[in-house]
Specification:
single chain; 252 residues; alpha/beta; two-stranded parallel ribbon; 28% helix; disordered N terminus
Length: 252
């Protein structure tokens, strides 16, 4: 092995040299920002706030609900519905979270893929205060946050896996407005994020219009059924039929 000084490490005697090439940040995939993305009409996005997340999840065949370990830490009791500005960060780093405040539009939900890491918070009350001033609707973090008391005082909607006192780094790399995974669901820029006290659901933007049609129909059709349940008028014959079809053994 050569002991001469070079770009891959220190020279003989520990003389300083360039850092290893593996430490460099490279432009392109993994370190890039897309400033604009397609968004749905705001009236379409806003209508999703009229429906609870369990209803939306059912209509999406239960495949687009975000992992329930990502829970609301602040902004309780408020409905969240906004277009996604997506952010991917190296776990524990929030350079791109800061930059996302310049990219997101008012009403957007900033969704941060932080690898589910519990090592460092990727935001706190200061960046949330900045986001609130910019008109951002809320944050969804697949990772952890800090300053929870301050977040609650702001009454700013934030979902995360938990909290820590360990703050973030600001070095990169990361991406803004590219596809990410958050809580087991793929989120694309411009998808609709809906959140309430039951959890979070992702509505792929290409299906949003058709889904609203079905939600409206379901809501209208369910009204009579729910009114009957409120009166105590219901039976479980539908369950008996399923059990019969599956040859379930029932003994006296």
């Amino acid at each position: 092995m050569s002991t001469s000084s070079g770009p891959l490490g220190n020279g003989p005697g520990g003389r300083p040299s360039e850092p290893p090439r593996s430490a460099r940040l490279h432009p392109g995939v993994g370190f890039r920002i897309r400033k604009t993305t397609d968004r749905l009409d705001r009236a379409v996005v806003a209508e999703f706030a009229e429906y609870e997340t369990p209803e939306i999840s059912d209509m999406l065949n239960r495949l687009y609900a975000v992992d329930s370990a990502i829970t609301r830490l602040s902004g309780h009791g408020r409905m969240l519905a906004g277009s996604a500005t997506t952010v991917r960060v190296f776990p524990g780093d929030n350079l791109m979270v800061h930059k996302s405040l310049d990219i997101a539009e008012p009403g957007d939900v900033v969704v941060v893929a932080a690898g589910g890491s519990f090592s460092n918070a990727v935001l706190g009350d200061t960046i949330s205060a900045k986001a609130k001033h910019r008109g951002i609707a809320g944050f969804v973090i697949d990772g952890v946050v800090r300053d929870v008391a301050g977040l609650r005082e702001l009454d700013f909607p934030v979902w995360a896996r938990g909290a820590t006192s360990v703050g973030p780094l600001h070095r990169g790399p990361g991406e803004i407005n590219y596809s990410i995974a958050c809580g087991g669901v793929v989120v694309n820029p411009g998808d609709v994020i809906v959140g309430d006290d039951s959890g979070l659901v992702v509505v792929p933007k290409e299906t949003a219009g058709e889904l609203l049609v079905r939600l409206r129909g379901f809501k209208a059709g369910a009204a009579g059924y729910l009114a009957a349940v409120d009166r105590g008028e219901f039976d479980n014959r539908w369950a008996d039929q399923i059990l019969t079809n599956l040859n379930c053994e029932v003994t006296p």
